[in-house]
Amino acid sequence: xxxxxxGEHCHVIGVQKILDEIIYNLCDNAxxxxxxxxxAEIGIHEIENEIILSVRDxxxxxxxxxxxxxxxxxYRVDKARSKAIGGTGLGLSIVKHGAIYHNAEIxxxxxxxxxxxxxxxxxxxx
Length: 126
What we know:
Heat Shock Protein 90, 31% helix
């Protein structure tokens, strides 16, 4: 698997531990739910008055009907795979609550067998 980091130097005003947890959990999922020889890409960019953190992968993806639930505590899309690779099912719930704490927006784009991209959009002036 390939891990790529792209972007520019940006400043997000917030609680470092919570921001670390957001990044860790997004990256952890991008790696766990990827395919062999897949790609996980972490990006950070400043666009107008926003800082956009994105984590994209070429993994298994998430069906439309599952997408509303993935940020719930203990929810797992692929229960068999989750059991095999471990984890608590709390990662994306932690991301959601961290984003709420920082008044950030979460944008999810995913398609089965094509991958997932999750963007956390921070207001630059909060």
